[in-house]
């Protein structure tokens, strides 16, 4: 199969660049707007912050890392609680505080250097963590494919499988441009099939009512924390959301590991972990200053890159610019939100699976000896605790899934004997 590929600093032609950027936009859109919907924040503000945050992250990391920033799920419970008590001003202040935590850690990393990274994150820890990042999302993807309102639905399953098989077909057999936008093409096929299937069966799969009622020009409901609501500190927001930044940092490490493997680079050293943490922190602060949910790097977009082998930062920047523009165009934003869950689920099965496979690739390339008891036990504990969602909860702070399994893996690697 002949397939075009673009490295980190290579720019596709304008038409192709736009298509590739839209592909990334579709991949992250559902999750990015779901977080504000669950919390009670205007989704267009989250879309705006994701674009601005991504551009800030790219700038801080010297346009060396193809990472897209989207709404973080880790803060949902804290944001829901704060919205009921102190409102959006407290949420915004909490998001800014979380970003400041990132900046403080970045300063510490800059002063002590990066030598410690290789010692605590060897391949036997990194590989299973990357696998967990993909596999821990498997239940969500599968549920989107086959469940409607919490109940099994055969038509949803068929739509999800049509979408998934379309992505696979375009990725394997597509020539030239077709082979590098399989997600976008698979989404279009799944969306059209869902419309036809709904019309034939009489079930409403795609709802166009919000598209019809949406305005073409729509200004996001931006809330400036120290202007819209006056200068007031919310200690509860700071104490609630600041510690969660350490949890999302662990996810940040995992995503950088995946990108290292995909692009054959070491971003911990160039541009450096201090720059990647600063980029994440600045993106969170921007989100807080416009009243949006905190943001973090997105596994969905990493999955797109793993699938089509296109790592261009220009594509990521293009997706960010499009996200900013769409936050002001109500019709198109509503049209994207009308994409049914089985279509999103079908795409997610491929994306999350590719991320998990990248973790397996790390173990294979490092020639990790799984006959060694230490390696076998570390991998086993990380995989089961991470995929199973093992959780540590202390004083209201939850460390679960990827974060907790990462901590367990790091600790086991340090304390278990090599023989």
TrEMBL record:
<feature type="transmembrane region" description="Helical">
    <location>
        <begin position="154"/>
        <end position="173"/>
    </location>
</feature>
<feature type="transmembrane region" description="Helical">
    <location>
        <begin position="311"/>
        <end position="336"/>
    </location>
</feature>
<feature type="transmembrane region" description="Helical">
    <location>
        <begin position="121"/>
        <end position="142"/>
    </location>
</feature>
<keyword id="KW-0813">Transport</keyword>
<dbReference type="Pfam" id="PF00860">
    <property type="entry name" value="Xan_ur_permease"/>
</dbReference>
<feature type="transmembrane region" description="Helical">
    <location>
        <begin position="20"/>
        <end position="41"/>
    </location>
</feature>
<feature type="transmembrane region" description="Helical">
    <location>
        <begin position="65"/>
        <end position="82"/>
    </location>
</feature>
<feature type="transmembrane region" description="Helical">
    <location>
        <begin position="342"/>
        <end position="364"/>
    </location>
</feature>
<feature type="transmembrane region" description="Helical">
    <location>
        <begin position="213"/>
        <end position="231"/>
    </location>
</feature>
<dbReference type="GO" id="GO:0005886">
    <property type="term" value="C:plasma membrane"/>
</dbReference>
<keyword id="KW-1133">Transmembrane helix</keyword>
<dbReference type="GO" id="GO:0042907">
    <property type="term" value="F:xanthine transmembrane transporter activity"/>
</dbReference>
<feature type="transmembrane region" description="Helical">
    <location>
        <begin position="88"/>
        <end position="109"/>
    </location>
</feature>
<dbReference type="InterPro" id="IPR006042">
    <property type="entry name" value="Xan_ur_permease"/>
</dbReference>
<feature type="transmembrane region" description="Helical">
    <location>
        <begin position="376"/>
        <end position="392"/>
    </location>
</feature>
<keyword id="KW-0812">Transmembrane</keyword>
<keyword id="KW-0472">Membrane</keyword>
<feature type="transmembrane region" description="Helical">
    <location>
        <begin position="180"/>
        <end position="201"/>
    </location>
</feature>
<feature type="transmembrane region" description="Helical">
    <location>
        <begin position="398"/>
        <end position="416"/>
    </location>
</feature>
<feature type="transmembrane region" description="Helical">
    <location>
        <begin position="238"/>
        <end position="262"/>
    </location>
</feature>
<comment type="similarity">
    <text>Belongs to the nucleobase:cation symporter-2 (NCS2) (TC 2.A.40) family.</text>
</comment>
<protein>
    <submittedName>
        <fullName>Permease family protein</fullName>
    </submittedName>
</protein>
<dbReference type="InterPro" id="IPR006043">
    <property type="entry name" value="NCS2"/>
</dbReference>
């Amino acid at each position: 199969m002949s397939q075009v590929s673009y490295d980190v600093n290579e720019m596709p032609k304008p038409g192709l660049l736009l298509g590739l950027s839209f592909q990334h936009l579709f991949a992250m859109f559902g999750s990015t707007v779901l977080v504000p919907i669950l919390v009670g924040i205007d989704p267009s503000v989250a879309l705006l912050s994701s674009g601005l945050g991504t551009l800030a992250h790219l700038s801080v990391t010297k346009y060396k890392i193809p990472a897209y920033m989207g709404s973080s799920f880790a803060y949902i419970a804290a944001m829901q609680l704060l919205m009921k008590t102190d409102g959006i001003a407290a949420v915004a202040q909490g998001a800014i505080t979380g970003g400041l935590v990132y900046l403080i850690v970045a300063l510490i990393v800059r002063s002590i250097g990066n030598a410690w990274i290789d010692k605590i994150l060897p391949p036997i820890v990194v590989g299973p963590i990357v696998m967990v990042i993909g596999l821990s999302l498997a239940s969500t993807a599968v549920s989107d494919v086959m469940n409607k309102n919490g109940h099994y639905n055969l038509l949803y399953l068929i739509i999800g499988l049509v979408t998934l098989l379309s992505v696979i077909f375009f990725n394997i057999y597509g020539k030239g441009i077709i082979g590098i936008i399989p997600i976008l093409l698979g989404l279009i096929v799944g969306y059209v099939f869902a419309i036809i299937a709904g019309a034939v069966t009489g079930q409403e799969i795609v709802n166009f009512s919000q598209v019809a009622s949406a305005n073409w020009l729509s200004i996001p409901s931006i809330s400036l924390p120290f202007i819209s609501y006056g200068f007031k500190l919310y200690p509860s927001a700071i104490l609630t959301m600041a510690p969660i930044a350490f949890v999302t940092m662990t996810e940040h490490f995992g995503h950088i590991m995946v990108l290292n493997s995909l692009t054959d680079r070491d971003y911990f050293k160039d541009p450096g972990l201090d720059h990647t943490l600063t980029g994440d922190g600045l993106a969170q602060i921007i989100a807080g200053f416009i009243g949006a949910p905190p943001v973090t790097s997105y596994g969905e977009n990493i999955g797109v890159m793993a699938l089509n082998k296109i790592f261009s930062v220009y594509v990521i920047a293009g997706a960010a610019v499009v996200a900013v523009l769409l936050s002001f165009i109500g019709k198109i934003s509503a049209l994207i939100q009308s994409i049914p869950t089985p279509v999103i689920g079908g795409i997610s099965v491929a994306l999350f699976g590719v991320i998990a496979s990248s973790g397996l690739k790390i173990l294979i390339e490092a020639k990790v000896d799984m006959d060694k008891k230490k390696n076998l036990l570390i991998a086993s504990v990380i995989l089961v605790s991470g995929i199973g969602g093992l959780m540590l909860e202390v004083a209201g702070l939850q460390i679960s899934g990827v974060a907790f399994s990462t901590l367990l893996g790091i600790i086991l690697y340090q304390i278990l004997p090599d023989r």
